[in-house]
## 1
Amino acid sequence: MQYQIIKYGTDAYTASLNLRHETLRVPLGMDLFDGSYDDLSNEARYFHFGAFSDDGELLASVLGIPTSTKEVRIKQMVVSKTLQNQGVGKRLFMAFEAFLLNLGFKEFILHARMTAHGFYLNMGYQILGDKFQEVGLDHYKMRKTFFPSSD
């Protein structure tokens, strides 16, 4: 499996959109492409990252939105239904964090669905505040801060 950046506008980006739509929006009766919740017009400035099979098929993806020079908001982490609970998401997420750290980001923020917040707790994220509603589901705002090493 390969973990790498997904360039905006490529076939891999389209595959990521389709995976996000089918896995994250369709089960909620929503459409990623209709603009009612997701504004895809800004995605050219986001960081898109994916896990690919050896033959190039996109298996999982995640995106990050820079909110400052040191902070990024991570969203829409998705793993193909056939590969969930097999460590693909964890490996993708760790590779994405390393990628973002190499770019100089130190604080990562995300909104975790209640069904996924345990995953992020295990990845070292902390819950910030009370649960809230987003896309009709309960979420927690979570954060992980990386500090420069003192070597």
## 2
Amino acid sequence: MKILAFAASNSSTSINQRLARHVARRIPGVEVETLDLNDYEMPIFSEQRERRSGQPAEARDFYRKLGEADALVISFAEHNGTYTAAWKNLLDWTSRIDRRFFQQKPALYLGTSPGGGGAQSVLSQATASAPHFGAEVVASVSVPRFQDSYDGARDFVADPAIDRELAQAAALLAERMGLREIRRLAS
């Protein structure tokens, strides 16, 4: 079984990338592939550009990667209360290949930020729009004050309440994937 984990951000130091990878790796018995949105950089979407040039190879490659996965762990960065420009552009291009580009995959949606909001606005938007794009969100978790909650040196969530919530969300995804050993994830 394969989980595709990525941040909906193109930051080279993305805390959302670290969170997505951390949570995906907590699920035993799966292969985790981590994507970097910088590998899918394309011109800004427009219908005119699409008519003139067709679909960029990067959008087709991203769509193919989604299709190869059994489940998704996506952590959404928030810019001005909404999606990052990099994610919105990739979403726009990929949804022209197939509006339901997540291909009915079970997904765990996350969001984090340095501040107390924990990317809740964008996480709410992403969760609400997920069915439109063919994702089955089994859980969503907001992690406020990432630097206070996560110890990167030890790959450890220091806040017990947040750690428990992430473990429960990972267990729900594992259960939806049909994995048997889920009880120990949530404990």
## 3
Amino acid sequence: MRIISGTLRGAQLPLLPNAQLRPTAERVREALFSILGSAVCGVAVLDLFAGTGSLGFEALSRGAKSVTLVEKEVRLAKKLVEFCDDMQLSDDVTILNTDAARAVNFLAKREIRFGLILLDPPYDSDWISMLFSSDSFLGLSLSGGLIVVERTKFNQKIEGSGKIKLEKTFSRKYGSSILEIFESTKSQD
């Protein structure tokens, strides 16, 4: 598994033997970042289910200002730290070794906002519907910020909360994966 384009092109991403990961396929990553284009440049990025960090590091490689990776698996989080040290990325990457709910609370309390949020949770989980019903999660996105979701058709419907509205700007199926992009806007309450 490698970074496919940008300043870190060709760098081998950290892998953990026997980890139950489902990294985003290269063709899906290539399609995603082709669609996002310059929307990645200069923004803070949150990769909430980092795994190997493939989405977050790809965003950094393509011009993101900074990346926050959230990974609850301790051994994998250590591999991400080692990768950042080896690639001299420690100034641009923050790694939070916790689960998504705790990370959202931590970031929301500190009023940290992102121009791009990447969600690729385990396919058999309810994380997407739980997060999208949370004002704390949706509030992490800047107004006009993008939220990217990789899911299967089996996940629940995605809707915004009362305070934050979402507009689906892209949806396409790639094999068993569905890639969707939402733009967030604050409601006029």
## 4
Amino acid sequence: MSKELLRIADLHAWYGESHILHGVDLSVNEGEVVCLLGRNGAGRTTTMRAIVGLTGTRKGSIRINGEEAIKLAPHKIARLGVGYCPEERGIFASLTAEENLMLPPTIATGGMSIEEIYAMFPNLKERASSPGTRLSGGEQQMLAVARILRTGARLLLLDEISEGLAPVIVQKLAEMIRTLKAKGYTVVLVEQNFRFAAPLADRFYIMEHGHIVKQFAQSELTQNMGMLQEYLGV
């Protein structure tokens, strides 16, 4: 049995007076790929942001590798080995691709070297001296993921990494996730692209209106397609 790396219990989160999460419960085991599915506004991104302390108010429990993180500041949560890749990517446009890679702090031992990053993302090696503004959307997405791999984080929160990208790039990102899983990383995906996530995830959670409404394993995917159609329209 793999150990539990992330456990969320009765999580509530607010942005100002807007109550977004209403008692979320989920768990992620070490080495798993887990996907949060749901329509826009279901609370998936807010769940990711709450894990790393970027929502306004949080109540409940978020245990990362056994340590309670609900009251910790974002920089202390990162040092528990968590890397967050937001949907907006946050590439520094005035810096080159390699300068972007050199920015992240080391939060734990075992972060990937520049050479390891370039082996995984050959496109970034070719564009190492190109400014962020000159990178394609796919290259920017690779760079955004590569930056958190530099930190030493082992729990990776990836928000809509396939959105708006060409199929060939989406395929490369899928290969990247398989490689990371083989290396023992733990990945939580928020995805609108069900066809991208379906073959990658070990388990799925479906969110609606700030709740988890269903969870199932990869082995149960076929029998849950009707329910997915109902919730997601896939």
